[in-house]
Write a structure and sequence with these properties.
- This protein is mainly β and 406 residues long.
- Helix content is 5%, strand content 48%.
- It contains 1 helix and 33 strands.
- The chain has a 6-stranded antiparallel sheet, with no helix packed on it.
- A hairpin with a 4-residue loop joins β5 and β6.
- The N and C termini lie far apart (77 Å).
Length: 406
């Protein structure tokens, strides 16, 4: 019997080890769409962009694109070509750095340029993997692709795009990750955006935001979103990208599944429309806590939950989603606390000085595992008068507003 148990354990260990080492490669694409023009890129879909990188949008009318449209401000036919409306560019310089997450095996980028452009891939040990040269391709109606593959035993960590000046743009960046290399955990936030008051018969939208802010990708996520079936009729759902979908609908429960989420601030949204039943009574609380389960390279059963949206049935105008934080002043120190956020979501904190002076940023923090935020700051040197303290949650979009005086 002992030998049989040992044999079973060995077989189980070998099988689970095989599964762990045979994780599928993950492919992530950055299309630069749906971002405001001229906004700094920073961290985007698992990638960190260096200084100078900006989102571009041809609908702003500021660019010599897209070919073959007419660009009167640039003397005739538009020169640069892109796929869609959005693209990436470097402002004020001919060189841009792109820093990749752990485990990248291949990287590709599409380029439209009026000058010779060099693209260089570097490994984690600092060695140059390869350099590619892109010749001018404006007025051709095409983007030229550069692709790098890491040699055996190496991964790609840095990409440098370099030209004599900022007369080029990039689009449709794609990279492939082996999650088993340098495996790091995902960290997920699930937030529901507050819709304060809805009337009987009204159609309203519930926005669900899922973000991965961990250093490793989430391989897949399942979300279970309960809803008040006696008070609401489910109409439809829309997701921000194709690899997020509603997989099942049962009375009072929606199940949503996603593909992989890249590390470092990859974010998806699901917009669900409901109609409030005509017979629904005022004062009924409609919000429900959603729960999620996920798998990453280090964890096969991660889990968490959302905030509780305070959506109620009523006939009055929106009450606004403002709530009040707890504020305590001891000597020259102000201590604040608030709860009801989505666990892990970022919360911006600032105060408004008296006499209409500009707001002063205190900090941005992430809510703890119970959806709570607390902290303190010094009042030393602040002028006398009445102030207001503001806490604003980035995903659930709740505002906590409290008054204090000096």
């Amino acid at each position: 019997m002992h030998r049989w148990l040992v044999l079973c354990f060995i077989l189980w260990h070998l099988c689970t080890a095989t599964v762990a080492t045979a994780q599928s490669l993950l492919t992530f694409t950055l299309d630069f769409e749906n971002s405001s023009d001229n906004v700094a890129i920073g961290e985007y879909s698992g990638v960190r962009f260096g200084a100078g990188w900006r989102f571009g949008d041809i609908r702003s009318g500021r660019y010599n694109a897209p070919f073959p449209d007419t660009c009167p401000d640039f003397g005739g036919t538009c020169a640069f070509f892109i796929n869609g409306y959005g693209f990436g560019r470097v402002s004020g310089s001919g060189t841009g750095m792109i820093f990749l997450p752990a485990g990248v095996l291949s990287f590709s980028i599409y380029v439209s340029t009026s000058d010779i452009l060099r693209v260089t891939a570097t490994a984690s040990d600092g060695a140059v993997i390869a350099t590619a040269e892109v010749l001018p391709n404006i007025l051709t109606g095409r983007l030229d692709q550069v692709t790098f593959s890491a040699p055996a035993g190496k991964t790609i960590t840095v990409i440098e795009v370099s030209g004599p000046k900022d007369t080029w743009l990039i689009d449709d960046v794609q990279y492939v990750v082996d999650p088993a290399l340098g495996a790091r955990p995902a960290r997920l936030v699930l937030a529901q955006r507050v819709n304060d008051v809805v009337a009987p018969g009204e159609v309203f939208s519930l926005d669900v935001v899922l973000e991965n802010y961990g250093r490793g990708p989430a391989l897949e996520v399942t979300i279970e979103l309960p809803f008040a079936d006696n008070e609401l009729m489910l109409l439809d759902a829309r997701t921000s990208r194709p690899d997020v979908w509603v997989s099942d609908v049962q009375p009072g429960l929606i199940t949503i599944r996603t593909g992989a989420l890249a590390s470092v601030r990859d974010l998806v949204t699901i917009t669900i429309r409901f109609r409030v039943r005509e017979e629904c009574s005022p004062g009924v609380l409609l919000g429900r806590v959603a729960r999620f389960w996920y798998r990453d390279a280090t964890n096969t059963f991660g889990r968490g939950q959302s905030n509780l949206p305070y959506t109620t049935v009523g006939t009055s105008p929106e009450r606004t989603s403002w709530r009040t934080p707890t504020i305590t002043i001891t000597g020259q120190t102000l201590t604040y606390a608030a709860e009801g956020f989505a666990p892990g979501e970022p919360v911006g904190i600032w105060y408004n000085p008296p006499a209409g002076a500009p707001p002063v940023t205190v900090t941005t923090v992430r809510a703890d595992g119970d959806g709570k935020v607390s902290g303190q700051f010094s009042l030393q040197g602040m002028q006398l008068g009445d102030y207001s303290l503001v806490l604003f949650s980035h995903h659930s979009q709740q505002t906590f507003l409290g008054a204090f005086s000096r």
